[in-house]
Specification:
By secondary structure, the protein is α/β, with parallel strands linked by helices. The protein has 2 domains: about 110 residues, Dihydrofolate Reductase, subunit A (3-Layer(aba) Sandwich), CATH 3.40.430; about 120 residues, no CATH class. It has 5 helices and 9 strands, in the order βαβαββαβαβαβββ. The structure holds NADP nicotinamide-adenine-dinucleotide phosphate.
């Protein structure tokens, strides 16, 4: 395969939602705990998230003052010499994520210290590229105006030798991967709640696809389902 094996790992409500208040309810705590535990133990080179999830989980909306950085006009990928082998891959079309370190700062070893990789379109402020270079954050272009999922994944394997990645949301990015047909495995931790009508589904966009059940486990009353692509 010329791209990493992708495992979509998510907490889902009983009605198949992945965003919203249900995630913060006490009844969801055990499912969340199991989710993080699986994240720490699955053998992978790290995780992928959409721009919104990265913002809500890690950057908190902070953004650098780009006037402090020299523009980089070249649209060549930036891959520094030192690669850690453990990555946080951000799908960030226009370079809207502000990182204060080139590693994820988090107490959870399933996330903390992951080397950030920015996946970008070419529709990005040249000064943002200067900022990423000054921070030592690798970046890869995967489309002119939007990010093409296939292109991004092929580059992740070719440039970083990444064999397996967890796709960890949110709904919009999961949907783009589902449409592209690149989800090899689903790892679903089912929280015993239903969600609000306005919350987003596992895949915001999708096509009809078949999966086969690989395992079912019940951990402390929480179902953990694994499905493989047929
Ligand atoms: N239940 C769980 O296990 C779980 C896990 C993770 C997150 N979440 C929840 O998910 C919520 C966020 O999900 P979300 O669906 O709103 O956003 P998301 O999927 O995290 O991010 C979507 C954004 O990613 C960017 N993007 C880059 N390339 C893309 C592509 N090829 N296709 C589609 N989008 C692309 C776009 O923003 P730009 O155009 O700005 O680049 C897009 O708006 C959070 O509130 C979080 O709580 C839940």
């Amino acid at each position: 395969m010329n791209r990493p094996y992708i495992i979509c790992h998510m907490v889902v409500s009983l009605d198949g939602k992945v965003t919203g208040d249900f995630l913060c309810r006490p009844a969801c705590e055990k499912a969340t705990e199991i989710y993080y535990d699986i994240n720490r133990t699955v053998s992978s080179a790290g995780f992928i998230c959409g721009r919104v999830t990265m913002e809500s989980s890690f950057t908190g909306g902070w953004y650098p003052d780009l006037s402090a950085y020299a523009p980089v006009e070249s649209k060549a990928d930036f891959v520094p010499d030192y690669l850690s082998g453990f990555y946080a891959v951000a799908f960030d079309t226009r370079g809207r994520l502000g990182w204060q370190s080139n590693r994820i700062i988090d107490d959870d070893p399933g996330y903390g210290n992951a080397q950030i990789i920015e996946i970008l379109s070419e529709n990005v402020d040249a000064r943002y590229l200067g900022y990423l270079q000054s921070m030592g954050i690798p970046y890869v272009f995967a489309g002119k105006e939007a990010i093409d999922v296939d292109t991004a994944l092929v580059k992740l394997k070719a440039l970083f030798d990444i064999q397996t990645l967890l796709l960890e949301g949110g709904s919009i990015l999961n949907g783009a991967f589902q449409k592209a047909g690149v989800i090899d495995e689903l790892s679903l931790v089912v929280a015993p709640l239903t969600a609000d009508a306005c919350d987003k589904p596992l895949f915001m966009d999708s096509e009809l696809r078949e999966h086969c059940l690989a395992s079912v486990e019940s951990k402390d009353g929480i179902l953990v389902l694994k499905y493989k692509k047929v």
